[in-house]
User: What shape does this take?
Amino acid sequence: MACVLPLPYTRRLAAGDRKSPKRERNWLMTRNPDTAEGLAGQTMRATGFLSRLPVPARFWEDARAAAIGDDARTFPLAGVVIAAGPGLLLLILALIGMPTLMTAVFVILALVAVTGALHEDGLGDVADGFGGGATKERRLEIMKDSRIGTYAAVAIAGSLMLRVAGLGAIIAAHGAWSAAILLIAVSAVSRGAMVWFWARLPNARGEGVAHAAGAPSEMAANFAAIAGLAIFAVAGIAAAGFVNTAAALLFAIAATAAFSRLCRRMIGGITGDTLGACQQIAEIMLLAGLALGISLPT
Assistant: This one.
């Protein structure tokens, strides 16, 4: 997988996790999940892990590789931060009269740029491994190969096209303001799905990002799922109505559960690549559900 741990995590891991008294105080302040500062610290580190956005150095003091699993509970909140910029871009492009399809293309590409194509990379590796490997060992071997194969190219292209089409349909059906809100909500809940998926399957190999990070706890997974669902439910119902929001959630839950079973059958668990693929699948299904344009008869 092309994804690696953020440098502050790897530096801390190599240093043996030693702390000075001053850094111990900072660690306690930013790690305590029961405080607002602790939650903000986790959100910032999660944002740094999931994107290319710069994160102030103080949030990385004494960062440990294993802390990613702890910080995973704030992935939905990081999703809000990640999609805020592309959401603003959507509004600006709509304001200047950019055609809907071109707006959707620019916004999705901006979202890819913000994340450094992290999730698309995972989707491509999973497509190559699952499509080209006959055994668990061969699939995992292919997934570690950084080269892009035919399956990966088709999967990434399909993901981009489906998301552009879905976002364009949402803009046309609900308007730019509602589409921007829904884009942020989708970003949040799709990353909540990642944590739920991560916590419920064993690690398929004894190395890599998912192994180094450690699985999120049951409490962290529940927090992420509830936070993502709450953000999406409030924003979705307000911007697209109850029926479309419910349909999108049903699509995403079904697809995530099906992908979970597929991963268990194909490789016996999860890897960092499957986490990215899970996010992409959930995002596609959420956009598809919101794009249906269902309305209750009056």
Q: What stands out?
A: Residues 73-290 form one domain. Residues 9-30 have pLDDT under 50 and may be disordered. The chain has two domains: 7-69, 73-290. The first helix runs from residue 7 to 14.
